[in-house]
Amino acid sequence: MVSVRMTRCRALSEVDVDNDGCLPRVVEELKTFLKDKSPKVRSAACEVIIRRKEASSLPTQMLADILPALLHILADESGFVRYAASSALARLEFVLADLLMHQDSSVRKVSCQALSNLSSEAIAPHANRLAELLEVEELEEAACTTMAKLPQNLLVTHLQRLSESMLRLPSEVAEEFVNIVSFAEAQDPEVQRAAISIVGRWSHSGWVKALSHHQDLVRAGACRAIVKMPGSVLVHHEKLLTGLLQDWNSSVRASACFALGHLPAALLPAQVASLLDDLQYEVRREACLAAAKLPQGAIAPCALAVHAPNLAQLMQDDDANLRMAACTTMARLPGHVMARYATQISNALQGFPSLAQEFHGISGWLQHDELVVQEAACSIMTMWPSEMVAPHIASVVGLLEVLPHIAGILLAKLPVDLLAPHHVKSLSMKLLHIGSDAAERFVGIPGLLDHQNPEVLSAACSIMGLWRPPVLGQHCPKLAKLLQDPSPSVWQAACITLAKFHQQNSDSEVLEAFTSCGGWAGKAMLACRATRSWPRHILQALQQEVHSVAPQHANQLLTHLARCLLKSSETLDLLARLLETASGCSRPLNRNELLHAAAMAGNREVCEILVNNGRPICVKERV
Fold it and tell me: What is the DSSP letter of 14?
C-alpha cells in the first residue's frame, strides 16, 4: 500500500544514524523509495534527505549511492517530485565538492552531473576542480556540461581549454555553452577564437536554442556571433533573425539588424528598413547600415520617405560607415523629399565623393526656390563626373550670378568641349558681372581659342579679359593670332583683352601682334579705347608709321586721341601729323567735332593744335 510505504519512508528521517548498523539500512531504503512507482513515495524520500540535519555529513560513499537515484528523478514526470529532488540535491551541495575528488571516477562523474543541476552560484566555487576533471577522458563530457553553467567571469578563464575538449565531444555538449556567444566579439583574440571554435560546433538546433533563449543577452550575442559562422548558417536562420526585428529588447533588435546586414543583398529582408524609425538610436543605426545594402527597388522610395528625418540625423554621426550608409539610403528618396535636407546631404557627402553619383535625383534642385538648396545641388554636382553634369550646364550657368563661387567651381571643372557655343557666350556675360576671381577658375578657356565658331572665340577672349595680367600673360601669343581673324567680333575681343594686359605690361610680343596685322592702327586705337590710355610704345609706333596709316584709320585715331587727356609732346606731335594724314581722306574729318570732343575732355593743348592747324572757329560756343 502507498500509505504504508510513505509512513515507512518518513520514519527514516527519525532514525538515529549514529549507530553504524543503521546507516547502511537507511541509505538502501532511501534508494528504494527514490525508485518507488508512486510519485508520493518518491517525493517523501526526497523530503527525508531535506529534513535530515546529518545529510551533509553522511559518508561520501553512502551519498554516492543515493545520487544516481536522485538524479534520475530530476527528470520525473511529476512536477512536485522534480521540485523535491532539486531541493534534496541542494541540501547535498556542500558534500559534492568532496565527491568531485573521490577516487572512484564513477562517483566523480555522478557528482559532476549532480552539480550541473544546481545554480551557477552554487557551481562557481567548484570551477577549478571541474577544470581539473577535463583532463580525465571519461569525465570530460560531464565536467564540460557542468562548467557550461558557470558565470561568464569564471568561464572565460577556462575557455581555451574547453574549446579543445569540444573538438572531441558531441555537438550537444557545445550547445550547452549558450552564455559564451558574447565572447565571439571579445577584444582578446585568444578568447574570441576559443568562443568561435565552440559555437562553431553548434548544429542548427543549437542556434535555434540560442536565438530563442529566454535571456536577452544570449539572443543578442547569438545574433552577432552567427555572422562569424559560414554564410550557410546565417542564411538557414534568416527567418528566425527576421522575427527578432520585433523583439521587445532593443539590443536584440539592433543585433538582429546587424546579423541580417551580413546576408547577400538579394536575401536581405526589406523589414530592416522599418526599424529606421525605432525609438532607440542603436537600433536605427544598425537598421541604417543594413538597409543601405538592400538592392535597388527592394523598397519603394515613398515608403522610405517617412524615414528621412532619422536618416538626416544619422548622416551627422561621427562614424564614417554610418554616414555613408545613411547617405546611400537617402539617395533612394524622391528628390523633393531630399531637398528638405539639402545642406545635411551636401555636408555628409564631402567625405564620400564616389557616393555623390548616387544622388542623380538632385538635378531638379537647380530650379528650386530656395538658394540654399541650389547651392547644395551645385556642391554635390562638383563630385559628379563630367558626363553627368553636362545635361545641366544651362541651369548651372544661370546660377552664376547668385552663386558665383560654387557654380563657378562646378563649371570650371568641366572640359571646355562640353560647353556649347551659347553656353560659352552666356558664361562670358555672367562672368562680366562677377569679376576675375570666378573667371580665373576657368583654366580650360584658352583651349577654345582654336574653335571655329566666332561667337565662341569672342566669348573666350572676353572671359580671358577678366583674368589678371600674371594669369593672362602666357596666353598673349594665341590672343595675338586672333587679331588676324576676319570676324570683327573676334579681333575686337582679342584686342581689348590684349590691351588690358598691356595696361600693366610692356611686353614687345603684344606690340608686335598689333604691328604685324593688317589695319593695326585701328586695332591699336580700339585697344587704347578699352584702357582709356595710350601706352607709350603704341604712341612711338604710331609716330614711326603715321604715314602708312590709312586716312579712315587716321580719322578714328584722331577722334579717340582728341578725347585723351595725355599732354606729352609725343601725343601732341602725333596729333598734328595725323591731321595731315586725315586731310587726304575723301571725307575729311570735321574739325569742329574734334574740337568739341577735346573741349569736353578739358584738353586745352589739343584744342590749340586743332585751331592752329585749321580754320579758327568759335570755341566758346562749343564748350
Answer: G
Nearest alpha-carbon partner for 414 in 378, 450, 468:
378
Report if pTM > 0.70. no
Q: What is the 3-state secondary structure (H, E, C) of 509-534?
A: HHHHHHHCCCCHHHHHHHHHHHHCCC
Supply the DSSP string of 158-183, one letter for each residue: GHHHHHHHHTTS-HHHHTT-GGGGGG
pLDDT digits (tens, 9 = 90+) for 158-200: 999 999 999 999 999 999 999 899 899 888 999 999 999 999 9
CB atoms within 10 A of CB 320: 11
Residues 6+ apart with CB under 8 A from 452: none
Region of 297 (left: φ > 0; alpha: ψ -120 to 50; beta: rest) is left
In terms of C-beta density within 10 A (0-12 exposed, 13-18 middle, 19 or more buried), how is residue 19 classed?
A: exposed
Contact 383, 349 (CB under 8 A): yes
How far, in Å, CA of 141 to CA of 177, rounded? Answer: 13
E strand or H helix at 24? helix 22-34
* CA torsion angle 478 481 485 488 (round to 10): 80
Angle between helices 604-612 and 551-563 (to 10 degrees): 140
Sign for the CA dihedral angle at 302, 307, 313, 318 comes to negative
Of 153, 140, 215, 146, the C-alpha closest to 183 is 153
Write the burial class of residue 29 (CB in 10 Å: 0-12 exposed, 13-18 middle, 19+ buried): middle
* C-alpha to C-alpha distance for 596 and 578, rounded to whole angstroms: 17
DSSP string covering 331-363: TTS-HHHHGGGHHHHHHHHTT-GGGGGG-GGGG
Helices (H) and strands (E) in the chain, counts: 43, 0
Which amino acid does the sequence have at 387?
E
Q: Annotate 215-228 with b (16+ C-beta within 10 A) or e (fewer).
A: eebbbbbbbbbbbb
Distance of CA 524 to the CA centre of its chain: 58
Distance of CA 313 to the CA centre of its chain: 13
- Type of residue found at 596: H
Q: Which residue bears the cell 512536477?
A: 79
Which amino acid, one-letter code, is at 184?
A
Q: List pLDDT tens digits, range 447-496.
A: 888 888 888 888 888 888 888 877 777 787 788 788 778 887 887 788 77
pLDDT (average), residues 339-367: 88
Task: Burial-class residue 38 by CB neighbours within 10 Å (0-12, 13-18, 19+).
Answer: middle
**What is the structure's pLDDT at 622?**
36
